[in-house]
Amino acid sequence: MRARVAVDREAEIAVASLRAVGVEPRRIHLCTSAAEARVAYEAGDFIAAADLATVIDLPFEVVVEATGHPEAGARHARLAIEADRHLAIVSKEVDSVIGPGLARLAAARGRVVTPVDGDQPSLLVGLITWAETLGLEIVAAGKASEYDFVFDAASGLVTSNGRTISAPAFAAAWSLGDRPVAELVAARAAAASVLPQRAVPDLCELLVVANATGFSPDRPDLHAPIARIPEVPTMLAEREEGGLLSGTRRLDVFHCLRAPDEVSFAGGVFVLVRCTDRASWQMLAEKGHPVSRSGSTAMVYVPRHLLGIEAATSVMEAALLGVSSGGLAPRPHLDLVARATQDLAAGSVLEMGGHHHTIEGAEAELVPGAALAEDAPAPFYLAANCRLARAVSRGQAITFGDLEFAAGSELLALRRRQDALFFGAAAAADKVAAAL
Asked: CA–CA separation, 144 vs 152, rounded Å?
């Protein structure tokens, strides 16, 4: 595998990236036209460009879309598919709005759209697939949130994402023991109430998994308990087994609670499986596998996600095998939507920003997927960077009709195509035919 083409809105950044990985500066060409790019490519050199359109006709096999920008990512995805390239989509913001539609459009041209190993959605889809292949019954699946909660009992301090607070109440809430799960989860949430306990990226990534697997969240904003690693199979068990969940095949996250000298879950992924053979799982528990206190569920996990380091396997699977490391035929089972956390005035812009690509004044939640409609909640990253056509009150969902879209929005056009593929008249006719 060779990556000789780098694209960034500021082409100088692409040049710097190539230099940073050891490419000789004399072999890097900043190209502003397709002709320049072709000459450099045929010479075996490296290309930096400011626009994917400049290089899209070069004979490479896979486009890796990693901008994180919904509108730009939609354009790049369209260009890649129309040029008969495989698409490795790192930008979960794009995937959350139009991922299943992109996969369907690419498949029609004999190409694949894939998430990337190293990021949690792909790793979790792989773990779910592995468990189901073995015939294990999955009660729940999920991932650790991005940041641990590290409690220092000596000082009574909790640190998460570089922020430290005084939280002496964690001392009394450190061990689960025989306590009711809901009680302990509430106590820990209260003790850490000034720290964020819901993150848009967590919900967005689980939506990608849901669309690939058909699994669903137990509640729109997730339970997201603060939990020590051995507690997870107890906390995310079904309620009749003493856990939080109302059913099986659920998706959730947990915030890894640990002491400063304890190992982290490292943003890994997990499945909780039914312990149908108690004797076998007792043996596995003795070998250190986490089993719930009731003995009914066990956790199997991958304690890592190495981001770009692992992405190469997904790129190679697409190019060499023509397969996705995500779902084989994803469907829009869920939408990530936005709800106002404050009164939002007409004319204000829902600007996306920050490391987590959040929208100030809005929170995210997961709802059943549906076609765009005037009074239906709008997908979170379709709403991002749009202007409000009318005021939205605190607590209200931001609907499609609340938004003004820029002329020629590629993200909106591709979402409409996805809606037609999965919710349109032809899709309804196919569903009826399948039922017959």
From this structure: 20
